[in-house]
């Protein structure tokens, strides 16, 4: 007899087994081989699923419950470890398939480079796409030690593909002088803070299709130590949730989102996947109408 997996921790809590009728699809991208400092985010998706079992189904912020929403958890993509280029191809093809099926992709990372092929697929489907990027790091390098396929380059690639003025960055507090100069000139750039500038910027996005990518290291290391490139001086989980709810209550049309860079091995308390799983719940309830 089949055992219901909804509360097993093997899937994100309350995931439906019905792909066809699910609006959103959760998928893991267990890739961490281009990181500049500490690896380990390949284990992020599994730990976010395990931590999700501790969540309530109901969101008092949004007065909505995940039992009233149908989403499917596809598990983790099978990636060829060590081969970044082929891994990105596999991610891109998978997300293109989700978009063809009319789904909202909900990605679990993995290092931030996994977002690059997702953005390529999203932009192909939505030519008027805007990106909301919430992160401690600008991720605007052209290469890292000569390597363009690095977790420090995805937003630069996106800016070159779709124009920096279609990208909104929040919470950035780390990067090279060149990245900050590039951001100030080319991007809608809101460094250090997240919730207040988010509320300021959202009206200018109107009802555009938006992809939201959150690097967990935007949080202060005291709130999320389990990440490869922890950066002091970050925001609280309360401020991050406030920003997510501002997006949810705005008129933008969120067409996909992800949470990346959860590296559980650096966090024996598992606080980092715990906060990431609540973010996913709130984004499912706030963004998937
Ligand atoms: Mn980062």
Automatic annotation (TrEMBL):
The keyword Cell membrane does not apply. The keyword tRNA processing does not apply. Keywords: Hydrolase, Metal-binding. Transmembrane segments: none annotated. Gene3D superfamilies: Ureohydrolase domain (3.40.800.10). Its EC number is 3.5.3.11. InterPro entries: Agmatinase-rel, Ureohydrolase, Ureohydrolase_dom_sf, Ureohydrolase_Mn_BS. It holds the Pfam family Arginase. GO terms for molecular function: agmatinase activity. NCBIfam families: agmatinase. Belongs to the arginase family. Agmatinase subfamily. This is Agmatinase.
